[in-house]
Amino acid sequence: MSKKPLILVINDDGITAPGIRTLIKVMNSIGDVVVVAPDGPQSGMGHAITVNSTLFIEKITVDDGPQQEYSCSGTPADCVKLAIREILDRKPDICVSGINHGSNASINVIYSGTMSAALEAGIEGIPAIGFSLCNYNWNANFEACKAAVKTITEQVLKNGLNEGVVLNVNIPNLEEKDLKGIKVCRQARANWEEEFDKRQTPFGKDYYWLTGKFVNLDKGEDTDQWALDHGYVSVVPVQFDLTAHSSIQQLNSWELNGK
Amino acid sequence: MSKKPLILVINDDGITAPGIRTLIKVMNSIGDVVVVAPDGPQSGMGHAITVNSTLFIEKITVDDGPQQEYSCSGTPADCVKLAIREILDRKPDICVSGINHGSNASINVIYSGTMSAALEAGIEGIPAIGFSLCNYNWNANFEACKAAVKTITEQVLKNGLNEGVVLNVNIPNLEEKDLKGIKVCRQARANWEEEFDKRQTPFGKDYYWLTGKFVNLDKGEDTDQWALDHGYVSVVPVQFDLTAHSSIQQLNSWELNGK
Fold first, then answer.
1. CA angle A118, A120, A121 (to 5 degrees)
2. Is A206 annotated as a binding residue?
3. What is the DSSP letter of A81?
4. Residue from A50, A57, A71, A208 to probe the interface with B (highest B Cβ count within 10 Å)
5. Who among B51, B164, B251 is closest to A43 (CB)?
6. The domain at B6-188+220-252 falls in which architecture?
7. A243, A245, A246, A257: best to mutate for the B interface, most B CBs within 10 A
């Protein structure tokens, strides 16, 4: 058996997206790569899983790289589950997801299919990283991401991650020479100010498109959004124990049991 | 204007599900109720949002209660966004989501459309609660939930919640007389041991159904799963800042910038 690490590659933009093709190329230089990715775009799927429908997997060849590839009809989280239970012979040494076309920094982590794949792998006890480039364009330039993606992946393989923690890595949309470095950060407090674009169907029925703008409410200089705005690659350790431990005492003072 | 609280009611099982009909009845006894819920089941949608498709809203009447109701073609998170931006005249005093048909305790919070609606409201600064009954049956008995749902909602209206925190409430599948009380908890460490049921289409192609069993890996007596197993309603404060603050120092010791 090869002594190279076994690397599971996933994304949410679909198996043919330029972002995952770049990620596969970088991972081929590190280990043995198996790709299990959605057969089409799944952005904004959050942590969806397919419970009421069937799942199809197809072994495919997209380019001439050494990786093995499977396209899947399900969500990113489904892909992780199927990879582990049905495709891989052994537990992968690492799972990398992305490179997403668009930011998953700050509150976007909540909506992210890219990060949900990483979280799903983390729940299975696999060190995992989600990578995103802050450019929504299909034809974004992913070349500048390669060095940071490789460095961070190698550091995770070398050092491991704490139990219950995965990494959310975002890369600013810059030329490689303009990247300032890699910064460990916390998630910025931010939200989307949505606006709905209200229209009418040709048959007179109202409908809506979701639009909106991202608003950073956080002035801290230790946040992922600050790092990205200042030319750094941001690395946020993300946990899936969502308990707000600091609120437990407050809630215990409430009259919940007729006291 | 009425001095009663304005209550936004959402769910992920669809607007006609018995769980939301029970929740509406309880909320009608507390305040002015506006329902904005999916037109069909959305379970397992996680925190999905509809970014690449249109959204339809329809004002409907389901029963003879005083509530206003809107059915929506989108996900639970879409419903919250549409309610706030397009339907309600003012910010609701509270948002309640559910009552979900099935547990959202422990790791299920990650996959939960019910909780994603509550989180979305929380991101908007609205106190929010997700309620779930530990019975997946459409015809589950929701009567026993009513007292706990009312108590917890009234306590949130009275005391408020810390910024960035929403409540994940799960109710064991018991008769009301057998409920032991309400317990504030942390999220249990658990996962799903998935198995895929592999079949063939009539045309000879393999496909899979996702199945699996829930495994509680946490022996603590302060967890939601422990509370539910011992007859208590569990209340977990949940946060949407996913930063694993305790890992930041570890990551800062890594060689991320060629040092």
1. 65
2. no
3. H
4. A208
5. B51
6. 3-Layer(aba) Sandwich (3.40)
7. A243
Instruction: Report CB contact under 8 Å: A186, B245.
Output: yes
Annotated binding residue A162: no
From edge to edge, which strands make up the β-sheet containing A165-171? A57-60, A68-72, A32-38, A6-10, A94-101, A128-133, A165-171, A232-239, A181-184
The string of pLDDT tens digits covering residues B162-204 is 999 999 999 999 999 999 999 999 999 988 887 888 899 888 8
Helix (H, G, I), strand (E, B) or coil at A235: strand
Task: Please indicate if any CB of chain B lies within 8 Å of the CB of A48.
Answer: yes
Query: Tokens standing for A7?
Result: 């690397």
Let me know if B10 is exposed, middle or buried by CB neighbors in 10 A (0-12, 13-18, 19+): buried
Q: From CA B155, how far away is CA A153, in angstroms rounded? A: 46
Given pLDDT bands bounded at 50, 70 and 90, which one contains residue B160?
very high
With contact defined as beta carbons under 8 Å apart, do B11 and B76 qualify? yes
Contact B244 A151 (CB under 8 A): no
- Here the tokens at position A229 are 């705005």
Domain ranges for chain B: 6-188+220-252
Q: What is the mean pLDDT of residues B42-49?
A: 63
CA torsion angle B242 B245 B247 B253 (round to 10): 130
Instruction: Show residues of chain B in contact with A57, CB under 8 Å.
Output: 206, 208
